[in-house]
Amino acid sequence: MLTGAAGAGQQRLQGPDFERGLGRSQASACGPSGEDAMSAKLNMVQQDPQAAVMENPQSSASTVINIQTETAVPDHIVWSLFNTIFLSWCCLGFVAFAYSVKSRDRKMVGDVIGAQTYASTAKCLNIWALVLGLLLTTGSVVLMVIAYATAYTMIVKVMKESGGYH
After folding, report:
1. Domain count, the chain
2. What is the mean pLDDT of each run of 10 residues along the chain (166 residues)?
3. Has residue 2 been placed in a domain?
4. For a tag on the chain, would you pick the N or C end, based on fewer CB atoms within 10 A?
5. Within a domain: 5
6. Which DSSP letter does residue 163 get?
7. Is residue 4 part of a domain?
8. Is 83 in contact with 124 (CB distance < 8 Å)?
């Protein structure tokens, strides 16, 4: 049984199909030495399949995957989400969240410098959002307590002056 060479994109023909596909003139062009070489390769492949792959490396398909070591660039997305939801003064948390998402996108693309730039901006905005959020929340609570205490004392004073409930 004769086997034709099956390169990339070619069909593998065997036996009578091989001679029919090449035609008589092309089959005789291989000559006896070509057929002997083919049968020798076929025997070699049957005995050791890896030998044929090592002999003709261009016919085997290979894929090279270049995996880069990932640089740890924190994108501060959880911190930004926390500031967006709980400390939403001046919308700084939302802006920090947008920069965090941009940093994550840059990191996925492989732009480490851009990811670090966006992450640095997100970190700065998160710090400001946290500080302003805590100060403004604490200040609001203190003002509310003072306002309620003042209102209570004024109501008690008016009630004492009027002599009670009417």
Report:
1. 2
2. 46 48 46 60 59 54 70 86 84 93 92 93 94 92 97 92 72
3. no
4. C
5. no
6. T
7. no
8. no
**Residue found under tokens 């990932």:** 70
Domain that holds residue 38: 15-59
Q: Provide DSSP, 56-101.
A: -GGGS------PPPPP-----HHHHHHHHHH--STTHHHHHHHHHH
Is residue 50 located within the same domain as residue 109? no
Name the residue with tokens 């020798």: 40
